[in-house]
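Hi X.,

You mentioned you wanted examples for the new student's onboarding notes, showing what a folding record looks like when two proteins sit in one file. Here is a clean example. The first protein comes first, with its sequence line followed by its structure tokens.
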Amino acid sequence: MKIRWAILGTGTIATEFASGFEAANAELVAVASRSKEKAQFFAEKFAIPAYYDDYAELLADDAVDVIYIALPHSHHHQWIKASLEAGKHVLCEKVITINKAQLDELVQLAEAKGLYLAEAMTIYHMPLYRKLKEWIEEHDLGPLKMIQASFGSFKDTDPSVYYFNKELAGGALFDIGTYALSFVRNFMTSKPTEIMTMGNLHESGVDESSAIILRNAEAELATISLTFRAKMPKQGVVAYEKGFFTIMDYPRPTKAVFTSYDGKETIIEAGAFAQGLNYEVADFSELILNGSANETLAYTLDVLEVMDKVRKDWGLVYPFE
């Protein structure tokens, strides 16, 4: 049996999702755009059987099991809710909602309807992270002490693009910070209980650069550095008492280097960068087919809790909240 997927939206991430779509347990059967021409062009380009110029019409299609939402952040809550109410499972692009209250509401709705809901966060699905966790269990590394995650990208401030558009929930935190925080949460033993931050807001009103410090009940520390106005490596460092992992391009990594306390290096490899979105599709489809526990959702809720706190400290509120 194959799970039948449909896409809401035809932008950049939707194009990447459709262009490489391949999973043994899934098939792509429909797409919707507010423009009939865009929907038709997209469907023909990627050999998708059905297309719609109305999102609600796609949600009414009985031949669809899962909705993949690739719309701007500001539209996520509305269309996740509509999809769940239509009886569809939902995988939504990051950031899944703009605050935890929205996600709490949607989680309750999904549970009431017996549906799966998750964020399309590659970090939770890349094979390398599974291999690393197995490697950690097999080796005596001592307690986790420190995590560092940086991500810097130089973005155009043109307000027609969502990066610096407050009406579309722009800002570095929601676009790249969600990766850094998810990376940290993926390794932390428990969720952060102490959160400190400093942030710079752009004249558009969204966050431009920030530093975040986290600590949990186990006294594990994490530092996150983010900016939309300077290029920085997507680098993660996870330090245990007896050595540390360095993971480059951590949103979709294929290699990690473990350096022991005496300087010896071990290279650990798994997965393929180009298959990042397909790993999400395969895992989410498998959840539905097997009725398995939705383990990544708890991490997503924890990340949103951190985001709520740092935005409160920065004074960043979106107009539609």
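Then the second protein repeats the pattern, sequence line and then tokens:
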Amino acid sequence: MSKPDLNLLVTLDVLLAEGSVARAARRLQLSPSAMSRALARLRATTGDPLLVRAGRGLVPTPRALELRERVSALVRDGEAVLRPAEKLDLKQLVRTFMLRTSEGFVENFGPDLIARVAAEAPGVRLCFVQKPDKDSAPLRDATVDLETGVVGETMAPELRAQALFRDRFIGVVRKGHPLGKGRMTPARYAAGRHIAVSRRGLDRGPIDEALKPLGLERRIVTIVGGFSTALALARGSDLIASVPERHSGNLRAGMHSFALPFSLPKITVSLLWHPRLDADPAHRWLRGCVRDACAA
């Protein structure tokens, strides 16, 4: 099988952007006949007409619409590879980065990250926005630059992901709580009054699935949308919060934490971004700052 001509990617990108053979020919400084021949080659290579006649113009086929963003990203990446590397002057950089993450992440890793950014690039501002769901649309439509979280099945396949750290769930109660003394057992843990954390309001999760084979069930008395809220409630009551250990480090100050007395898979918190920003020098620098803040 012959290898496809990768030069056709540039032609396809321009054709899909212009939606016109004549305009694409002018943009690539080709004759209309040469562009028509290139379109014929693209149709033969992809097995799809790509652009079809509609009145006096051309409209993209479903396959062309599917390819448009991917082809555009490939061409941009190729141009970035062939372009001389720009030296990033952090002291002169003026930019606002949007980071979509949880409140717990900001409260634990935000201070170090903000301090690092302020020291290296005083003209850069970080804007943290809430993460109510795992929808990839904000990264796709460029309203968000970076996101943190656990990679799920609903993540868009084209997104880049890099692991930041591994975390485990622990139990947390107020200082002086009865569970702060004595040996912790699954039965003792399950018998307490619990706070469930679920953005969707669900009353069951991985902890409940882990207790089921032991013949145990938690008594969940309230459901909240975030770990920081769960810890605030546990701090002022006899309720038990079960939260990620590293993710909640600063929030648990002055409280009693304990390892869960049963096996539960660890979670991996990752950094997510769209490939359009993969080669951007300022974005690469910010990703390094986030990684360093989490490693510290």
